[in-house]
Structure formats: structure tokens, C-alpha cells
From TrEMBL:
PROSITE patterns in alphabetical order: HIT_1, HIT_2
Signal peptide (from-to): none
Motif Histidine triad motif, residue range(s) on this chain: 104-108
Protein name: Histidine triad nucleotide-binding protein
Residues annotated as domain HIT: 10-120
Molecular function via GO: catalytic activity
A Pfam family it matches: HIT
SUPFAM superfamilies linked: HIT-like (SSF54197)
Organism taxonomic ancestry: Bacteria, Pseudomonadati, Pseudomonadota, Alphaproteobacteria, Acetobacterales
Active-site residues per Swiss-Prot or TrEMBL entry: H106 (tele-amp-histidine intermediate)
Annotated InterPro entries: Histidine_triad_CS, Histidine_triad_HIT, HIT-like, HIT-like_sf
Natural source organism: Teichococcus coralli
Length: 120
């Protein structure tokens, strides 16, 4: 089963403004900020405001409005970053094999260069 949500995780602390982040977008459903260790010229994280451990938790538990609002925010952030023309990659890591480090559901947006094939 899924672990319980840990309200002390680093993204929860960013949501509560207890620690700083380079915020670029916020609405009622989502917050976006730059990754602290960027792995592409553009590397942004988008998180829902609700307490979901991972995509599994979000998919199973979030309401339709929260899910739609989150994905609308993902697209809007990419658009505002100028990535819609050239394109970009959206990725989420889940659990140990997925390499998830922070237990608050988030998607990565990578862009700013041709990214090549997955998992390279
Ligand atoms: P994942 O959980 O998807 O494997 O990766 C978590 C991501 O969060 C990593 O890319 C890491 O660089 C980023 N990250 C970890 N701690 C912080 C932080 O305190 N601030 C920001 N902006 N990013 C963080």
C-alpha cells in the first residue's frame, strides 16, 4: 500500500512558504517552481495543493476538479515558459523503482533543448 502523507515533506514546506522557492505560477489547484537542481535548460516542478503522496494517490483520491485544475496548470506553465512551440517533456516518478525523492505528487516539466529518447 501507499505510505501516509508526510506534511513535513519539502514540497509541503514550500507550499506553506516555510522555505523559499523560485515560484513561477500559482492558482487554486497548483503551484509551480523551478527545480533546485535543473537537469535541462528549463526544469520546473508542478505540484497540486492537495496532500497526495504520488501519482497513484492523486489518481485514486483527487476529485475531478482538482485533477482537471492540476493538468490545466501544467499546460499553462509550459505555455507561459514558451515551450508550447518547441515542445517539452512531462514526467512523474513514483515510488522506489521510479526514483521518487519527494513524497508530494509532482510532475517535472523539462524543456529548452531537444531532449532525445526517454531513459537515456
Ligand atoms: P523526484 O521526487 O521526482 O525524484 O525528484 C524531486 C525533485 O525535486 C528533484 O529534481 C530535486 O532536484 C527537486 N528538489 C528537491 N528538493 C528541492 C527543494 O528544496 N527545492 C526545489 N526547488 N526543488 C527541490
Amino acid at each position: 500500500g501507499l505510505p501516509p502523507y508526510d506534511p513535513g515533506n519539502v514540497f509541503a514546506r514550500i507550499l506553506r512558504s516555510e522555505i523559499p522557492a523560485k515560484r513561477i505560477y500559482e492558482d487554486e489547484h497548483a503551484l509551480a517552481f523551478h527545480d533546485i537542481a535543473p537537469k535541462a535548460p528549463v526544469h520546473v516542478l508542478v505540484i497540486p495543493k492537495g496532500e497526495y503522496v504520488s501519482v497513484a494517490d492523486f489518481s485514486a483520491q483527487a476529485g475531478a476538479e482538482a485533477v482537471a485544475g492540476f493538468w490545466r496548470a501544467v499546460g499553462e506553465v509550459a505555455r507561459q515558459l514558451g515551450l508550447e512551440g518547441p515542445g517539452y517533456r512531462v514526467l512523474t516518478n513514483m515510488g522506489p523503482d521510479g526514483g521518487q525523492e519527494v513524497p508530494h505528487f509532482h510532475v517535472h516539466i523539462f524543456g529548452g533543448r531537444a531532449l532525445g529518447p526517454m531513459l537515456s
